[in-house]
Amino acid sequence: MIPMVDLSGGTRPTHFCPVEPDLLIFVRWNRTYAVKVWPNAPRSEFRSRSVRTFDWDKRFTMEHRADGYNGPRRILAMTEFTITGDELWDRMERAVEKVNDRLRRTVRILEASKLPYAVIGGHAVRAWVAQVDEAAQRTTRDVDILVRPADLPALIDVMTAAGFFHRLTAGRDMFVEHPDASARDAVHVLLCGRVERDGDPNPDVEPVARANDFRTVPLETLVAMKLNAFCDKDRMHLRDMISLGMVDEAWLTRFPERLSSRLKQLLDDPEG
């Protein structure tokens, strides 16, 4: 029996299958579900528009987005693998390679342009963690770049000249490699001095920590940024650094009270 969850509270599915009108594909928080609409809804109840082709297990193709159905629905969580064997291994490896290639391509562009920048976020954590324990590195899908606001126009020029496409989504600048690419497959731009999530302003790109062929921020700056954001992934990164002895009790005096109290929370309970 497939577990079912009532989603009648207004959440809408994202795709429906033209050959099976009752079957919809719902993607939320990076999990994919197959959705059955009940009672059977006529296709006329959907206001559809074409979107990028999306293959589902090579059995049929989603070509529309379902935006109009507001009736009761149930969601069927995926309970088995539909992609296995070499194809699954290829997908898993390709996902990591694509992100690393995107980071390297971006860094080469920025190094050639001489624009001040810093790699931040998960890749900055990886670079610092790799200094201590190669096996402790975590993969990340994000490529985050910090630049000064005054350099944003020049950044857009050099990135688009190199083949990236500039996109402004929810007030955030990003670069994608294809016009229809997802924001998950983007280079995200953070601006120095901008306040993120009601926290402290982003730091400047200077001082810089040089990792031979790319620039990042000093470890103390990175830790402060992670304490400032303090989302799940930020706490995870901080716990990794604590477990490796990169951050300890002596660091509490380096930050203002708001950030210091967050760090103490993680030091007191490193397992979460």
Largest sheet: 5 strands, antiparallel
The gross shape turns out to be globular
Which segments are poorly predicted (pLDDT under 50) over 5 or more consecutive residues?
A: 1-22, 25-77
Order of helices and strands: EEEEEEEHEHEHEEEEEHHH
Count of helical regions = 6
Distance between the termini: 34 Å
Give the overall average pLDDT.
79
Number of DSSP strand runs = 14
Q: Which range best describes the helical content: under 10%, 10-25%, 25-40%, 40-55%, 55-70% or over 70%? A: 25-40%
**Beta-strand content estimate:** 15-25%
The structural class is alpha+beta
* Radius of gyration (Å): 22 Å
Q: What is the topology, as strand order, of the major beta sheet? A: 1-7-4-3-2
